[in-house]
């Protein structure tokens, strides 16, 4: 007898949980089989509900090495706003570097005291001891909206040392004018890439001239 009923459908929450479980299982199996490259950092699976997209390894290494170059010859404190891939590579390359991850996803509380819960909708609701405490701030706003960048810019101003602070912003090309207006940033020639293919072109903006690194600043039109 033919069954006229529709097949059962999984809820979006259940599908997301299943996707996360399978991704983590695949990562574990790959690691056990020795398929993971030695220089690859394994993070928790991306959560599309949180607009999470991890950097490609080469991008993470390039930006991490740039940040460490900025630290050269000094004891600098680094704030990583919503960019856990960068934080993980920084710690892999230089385990003793002073880096703080500000992130919405509680799964990253595995980093202990170097994890600070952060919601960009509450840009200054971070511990007071972090105010003006950082010599380098790297931010990757989760969304490409004007509102999101404005609020993350508030957080950057809160965290940045008023004396001297190097700023790096990874976000979409569509934010070029806002990045310049809000934070005085210019785009570098270097193009960030993600492990997942994204439709929007991403850029790296800085408030300092990187010279020959990162391809330098893109020439002004």
Using the 3D structure, state the CATH architecture of the largest domain: 3-Layer(aba) Sandwich
SSE succession: HHEHEEEHEHEE
Report the sheet with the most strands, covering strand number, pairing sense and barrel closure: 7 strands, mixed
Strand order of the largest sheet: 3-2-1-4-5-7-6
Q: What's the average pLDDT?
A: 82
Distance between the termini: 71 Å
From the structure above, extract its key features.
2 domains; 221 residues; nucleic acid binding; 7 strands; Rossmann fold; alpha/beta; 5 helices
Tell me what you see in this structure.
Strands 3-2-1-4-5-7-6 form a seven-stranded mixed beta sheet, sandwiched between helices. By secondary structure, it is an alpha/beta fold. It starts with 11 loop residues before the first helix and ends in a 15-residue tail after the last strand. The protein has helices spanning 12-32, 57-71, 84-93, 146-159, 176-183; strands at residues 77-81, 98-103, 115-117, 136-139, 166-172, 186-187, 202-206. Helix content is 31%, strand content 14%. The chain folds into two domains: 8-38; 50-215, 3-Layer(aba) Sandwich (Rossmann fold). Strand 4, helix 4 and strand 5 (166-172) form a beta-alpha-beta unit.
